[in-house]
Amino acid sequence: MSTLDLIIRNGTVATASDVFKADIGVSGGKIVQIGQSLEGAARVIDATGKYVLPGGIDSHVHISQPSGEGIVMADNFESGTLSALFGGNTTIMPFCLPEKGQSLREALTAYHRLADGNCYTDVSFHLIISDPSPSIIGQELPALVADGYRSLKVFMTYEGLRLNDAEILRVLDVARATGATVMVHCENEDAIRYLIEKHELAGEVAPRAHASTRPVAVEREATHRALSLAEIAEVPIVIVHVSNGQTMEEIARARARGLKVFAETCPQYLTLTARDLDGMDWEGAKMVCSPPPRDEAAQADCWRGIETGLFDLFSSDHCPFRYDDPKGKLNPKGRANFRHIPNGIPGVETRLPILFSRGVMTGFIDLPRFVALTSTNHAKTYGLYPQKGSLAIGSDADITIWDPAVKRTIRHSDMHDGSDYSPYEGMEIDGWPTTVILGGNVMIENEVLMGKKGQGSYRSR
Ligand code: DUC
Ligand code: ZN
Ligand code: ZN
Question: Which of 62, 189, 316, 348 to mutate to test the pocket of ligand 1 (most atoms within 8 A of CB)?
Answer without folding.
Answer: 62
